[in-house]
Design brief:
Lipocalin-like domain-containing protein, eight-stranded antiparallel barrel, alpha+beta, 2 helices, elongated
Length: about 140
């Protein structure tokens, strides 16, 4: 009888352990994590008209990578210039910050396995950037 109780207890612990170690695939952070190709960025609200408009990218060197490290880094590489910032994911949005630009409040417009489109409003400015990314 003791062996049966011990066996059932051990089976229960192993089963509980297996089902509790589920991978996080539902959070915004988990879904945006990884490397994305930057296809284009539409910029509005800039004080100089030359900096407004649609900027087309799409080369392999044009990417945004949301890293899964402890620092929650985001790396943006456009036309060979690389910038590293941070990001924090919430329910349907996330915030990111780059040193030269400051904080941006990002709202996800579209998120699938292969497409990420989001609108980033730069804090304390009228600057709005819409990012079109793909994998």
């Amino acid at each position: 009888m003791k062996r049966q109780i011990t066996f059932l207890s051990l089976l229960f612990l192993v089963t509980t352990g297996l089902f509790s170690c589920k991978k996080d695939t539902e959070s915004t952070k988990a879904r945006i994590m990884g490397k994305w190709t930057v296809n284009k960025i539409v910029i509005t609200g800039n004080t100089t008209d030359a900096a407004n408009g649609t900027f087309t990218y799409g080369k392999t060197s044009d990417y945004m990578e949301f890293k899964s490290n402890d620092d929650d880094q985001v790396e943006l590489s456009l036309s060979g210039q690389r910038t590293i910032g941070t990001y924090v994911g919430t329910q349907d949005s996330f915030n990111m910050a780059f040193p030269e630009e400051g904080a941006s409040y990002c709202t996800i417009n579209s998120l699938t396995e292969n497409v990420l489109q989001f609108t980033a409003k730069v804090d304390k400015t009228n600057l709005v950037k819409v990012y079109y990314l793909s994998r």
